[in-house]
Design brief:
- The longest helix is centred in the C-terminal third of the chain and has 22 residues.
- A hairpin with a 5-residue loop joins strand 15 and strand 16.
- The protein has 3 domains: about 80 residues; about 70 residues, no CATH class; about 130 residues, Trna Endonuclease, Chain: A, domain 1, CATH 3.40.1350.
- It is an alpha+beta fold and about 325 residues long.
- Helix 6 packs parallel to helix 7.
- It is built from 8 helices and 19 strands.
Length: about 325
């Protein structure tokens, strides 16, 4: 059942190179987060090169390879859909935008209580202001000594109305229209993350091996996955894929990327296997290769394939297999 699912995934990705490329980016980055700027809106820089990336991401989510999570929420204009939105505090009484938050002050000396706006001010040194009680005309010296702050409240500068909270309105900086919290769109902004299953498929090589298999079979080649062949030594060896081109055989092995040291050790082990089959062609596939890896492979007659993308790797393998087949036909 699992194998069927993985093959279906590979078939879907093989039909849509863009989908495959986005998956590669997702696995490399592991997480794609939004960039939110009021003037420019919501952007995903890594996805800019793909006009239909949102549709592709939805497909990857359906396939279980990517998951989404709410990263942020923004106020969106219900008229033009832009997020370049300003906030306005309005007076519940007169509708003025001059509704400000102020402190409620009690002058302990005379007992007078009012908002900070009502206390007279006179300049102090270094541009500070000195509060003066409007009742007894005495300057307020130190909070907690001769005056105290009882709380905070909103007060309208235009009509004097006070309220625990103002009316909240929004103004769209793009279209200029105003709206309130009831008509505003509170839009979710998502980040996208590769699922553990998606990472496993690519990092383990399961997906790429299936893609190689399907890519070759779609071009009419007879292929066998996880094939076991007996070498001239009499020892059985397993190949990820064996391609049967007329009377010749082509062995293909894919190895996920590793450190340079481990990669050379692994390549040498596969060369030993290859040496047990003097009559077959051999393709060693990896994500990337160093100069030393390429030299070792070339000296032993191993066809090394590596590339920056899965599509590039598949094209190289297909080209090699076609070349081997053509050479065989010419010799025949």
């Amino acid at each position: 059942m699992e194998k069927n699912r993985e093959l279906v995934l590979a078939e879907t990705l093989l039909r849509d190179p863009t989908l495959l490329k986005i998956l590669e980016i997702m696995v490399e980055e592991r997480e794609i987060a939004p960039q939110i700027r009021l003037e420019h809106g919501i952007e995903y820089p890594k996805m800019k090169m793909f006009p239909e990336w949102q549709e592709k991401i939805r497909k990857l989510i359906e396939l279980g390879l990517v998951e989404e999570k709410i990263a942020e929420r923004v106020i969106e204009c219900p008229y033009c859909g832009k997020i370049h939105v300003g906030t306005r505090f309005k007076c519940p009484s007169c509708g003025s935008i001059n509704m400000i938050k102020t402190e409620i002050i009690q002058h302990v000396t005379c007992g007078f209580v009012d908002t900070k706006l009502k206390f007279l001010r006179q300049p102090k040194k270094e541009s500070e202001e000195q509060l003066i009680c409007p009742n007894c005309k005495v300057s307020l010296r130190e909070e907690g000594v001769d005056y105290r702050v009882l709380g905070e409240i909103f007060e309208c500068i235009d009509c004097g109305r006070r309220a625990d909270r103002p009316k909240i309105h929004f103004i769209c900086r793009e279209c200029g229209k105003e709206f309130n919290i009831l008509t505003a769109k509170y839009k979710a902004v998502y980040m996208y993350r590769t699922t553990d299953y998606g990472v496993k498929l690519l990092k383990s090589g399961i997906l790429i091996r299936n893609l190689i298999l399907l890519s070759l079979s779609s071009k009419g080649f007879q292929v066998e996955k996880n094939a076991t062949l007996k070498g001239i030594s009499g020892v059985n060896h397993r190949f990820d894929i064996v391609v049967k081109a007329d009377q010749s055989l082509i062995g293909v092995d894919y190895r996920p990327i590793a450190s340079a040291e481990l990669q050379i050790t692994d390549l040498l082990a596969h060369i030993a296997k290859f040496m047990d089959f003097p009559d077959i062609k051999y393709i060693y596939v990896t994500d990337s290769s160093s100069e030393s890896i390429r030299k070792v492979a070339s000296s032993q007659g191993v066809n090394l394939v590596s590339g920056k993308s899965i599509t590039e790797i598949l094209n190289q393998i297909l080209t090699l297999v076609k070349k081997f087949k053509e050479r065989k036909e010419i010799k025949a």
